[in-house]
Amino acid sequence: YDKLDKIVIGVCGGDGIGPIITKESARVLEYMLENDVKAGKVEFKVIDGLTIENRIAHMQAIPDDVLEELKSCHVILKGPTTTPQAGSGMPNIESANVAMRKALDLFANVRPVKVPEKGIDWTFFRENTEGAYAVGSKGINVDDDLAFDFVVATSEGSERIAKMAYEYARKNHKDRVSIINKANVIKTTDGKFLNI
């Protein structure tokens, strides 16, 4: 971001309490970045349309016009969005979160966990666009008692999440990277990590 003349932060409220919490979060960011906003280095852009009502009206996980607005931002502050569940009476629309991960190639879910009194300083990296998320709910109901879903793993996806974790560890002076998988049982997909 140091190389950008201006950073555009999209503020996308979503559903439920989303508009309230994103508005307040944006206020905190605006306060913290006040000098950069005044200098024209940071711009906040409100993006409407990621509500369940609008998504149902367009029968899309992310309506095309909303996706184009999201793509025009460098950073997105997004509130929670509703994903219709089976039996809810709502149309079966893909999760906006999953669709956003795919459309914007947000492949890394990075979760730091720090508990200083226990000596815990971990950072988890989870691949966000492959695995069970890759095809969404495209499974097969064999009958009322049996269903199958699909898992996708590519060498590229496995390598880039491992590389990102390694680069983070090196940059932050961590002495170990562990890859957690079930390659002993799920040999074909989780096994990709063994060949990195």
Describe this structure in words.
Keywords: Oxidoreductase. It is a single chain. The chain has 196 residues and is an alpha/beta fold. The protein has a domain of 106 residues. 31% of the residues lie in helices and 19% in strands. A three-stranded parallel beta sheet has the order 2-1-3. A hairpin with a 2-residue loop joins strand 6 and strand 7. The mean pLDDT is 92.
Instruction: Give the termini separation.
Output: 29 Å
Which structural class fits the helix and strand makeup? alpha/beta
DSSP summary, beta strand count:
7
Rounded to the nearest angstrom, the radius of gyration is 20 Å
Strand order of the largest sheet: 2-1-3
Shape: globular
Biggest sheet record: 3 strands, parallel
The fraction of residues in strands falls at 15-25%
Q: Spell out the helices and strands N to C.
A: EHHEHHEHEEEEH
List segments where confidence is low: pLDDT < 50 over at least 5 consecutive residues: none
Mean pLDDT rating: 92
Percentage of residues in helical conformation:
25-40%
Put simply, the count of helices is: 6
What are the SSEs and their pairings?
Elements: E1 7-12, H1 18-32, H2 34-38, E2 42-46, H3 52-58, H4 64-71, E3 75-78, H5 96-103, E4 108-115, E5 120-127, E6 140-143, E7 146-148, H6 155-171
Parallel strand pairs: 1-2, 1-3
Antiparallel strand pairs: 4-5, 6-7
InterPro entries: IsoPropMal-DH-like_dom (IPR024084)
GO molecular function: isocitrate dehydrogenase (NAD+) activity
Protein name: Isocitrate dehydrogenase
